[in-house]
Amino acid sequence: MINEDQLVSIIIPIYGVEIYLKKCIESVLNQSYSNLQIILVNDGSKDNCAEICDYYSKLDPRIIIIHKENEGLVNARKSGLSVAQGEFVTFIDGDDWVGKDFIYNLVQPVIKYNTDLVIAGYLREFYGKEDKIIPKLAIGYYTKEQLLEYILPNAIYNGIFFQHGISTYVWNKLFKLNKLKSFLSIIDKNIIMGEDAALTYPYLFNCDNIYITDATDYFYRQRPNSIVKSVPNLNLEYSQLSLLFKHLKRHISKFEHIDLQIHLKLYFFAQILIRSGGVINDDIKTIPFSNIETAKDIVIYSSGSFGQHLISSLRKLNYYNIISWIDEDHIESQIFGLEVNSIDHILEFDFDLVLIASIDQHYTNEAVNKLTQLGIKRDKIACFKLDLTEIEKAIIKIGFDINTFNYKDQIYGLNQ
């Protein structure tokens, strides 16, 4: 039987978030569940984060501060875990915040079922707009047998390209301390892309039971410098992806009844497409949109991560004439320095094709409807087109072994 007032450790890695940090810390201090150990890990932040941490530590004895040199997110989490005393642990990013029942709603399933892992939903906040994100798999308790049958076969790939059944994030989850130590300790500090996935999936695949809740008490702040605007060093990013996927393959490959190699490969393809903007090795054939071969004057729809990578890659090709970039959130995008216009701006000029820069089918369908309602002909709207054969050829051509995830131009200094 689990103690109903079990100590929970909250690890908050902190770097360069001084304008958000007070709200984060105060949201934790105001939790309805009060038996907490709050671990603030100042990862060598150069702003005033250290002073903010020191201020709050004097107000509440539950706060422990670690001031350390900057070594990245993985080592910051490891440092926090080294002093954790709670039987259960969760993480919060220093630029996010939580509702008052965040910990309470994570702990209740643990009290009832003594689960290895609790998975919740979250709220995504973008300049005042909030989207509720609930888990894609059914809410409830899962035994080991049910995990093997229902959860693990859908965790990384749920049957829809670029969709996970279980999100990679660590901050909407509650972990057991002892098990967490084992799986955080094996993560290479050089994994600086996909750090959450490197922990979540190996941990999940070694659970005896879990609980999925529809609670959405975590507020994920999508801020301007969380959105990648360019890819300055693809070799470096490909090297980092190689490290991540070799780690995942190494630590979740024992489940022979699940075709994990296929799932990992699809996840890998999605990451390469996002990072390259769909233009792998500057090869026009890999651009994943219908009818783009005959187009010249292009409009990009969507200022999300994929849209930003796509427009950056197309500009670098210097083959297409990008005459406009449009999005529903154009005002927010402009505030963040992106040259994005409203959707109806598309009516002001001639173009050959508008590319809906999203891998999400639901978003794509909505975008198509909005454009057709404006009078744009369907044959001038290009949606994401997945050609796995062409993508695989292009990925092999740039130097990846898609079975081992080795990369030929692995940058030295990154551990193999």
What is the topology?
Elements: E1 8-14, H1 18-29, E2 36-43, H2 49-59, E3 63-68, H3 73-82, E4 88-91, E5 97-98, H4 102-113, E6 117-119, E7 122-126, E8 129-133, E9 140-142, H5 144-155, E10 173-176, H6 177-185, H7 195-204, E11 210-212, E12 218-221, H8 234-252, H9 260-276, E13 297-301, H10 305-317, E14 321-326, H11 330-335, E15 353-356, H12 361-373, E16 381-382, H13 388-397
Helix pairs in contact: 3-6, 6-7, 7-8, 8-9, 9-10
Task: Walk me through what this model shows.
With 416 residues, the chain is an alpha/beta fold. It is built from 13 helices and 16 strands. An eight-stranded mixed sheet has the order 3-2-1-4-10-6-11-9, sandwiched between helices. It has a four-stranded mixed sheet with strand order 5-12-7-8. A four-stranded parallel sheet has the order 14-13-15-16, sandwiched between helices. Helix 6 crosses helix 7 and helix 7 (195-204) runs parallel beside helix 8 (234-252). It starts with 7 loop residues before the first strand and ends in a 19-residue tail after the last helix. 40% of the residues are buried.
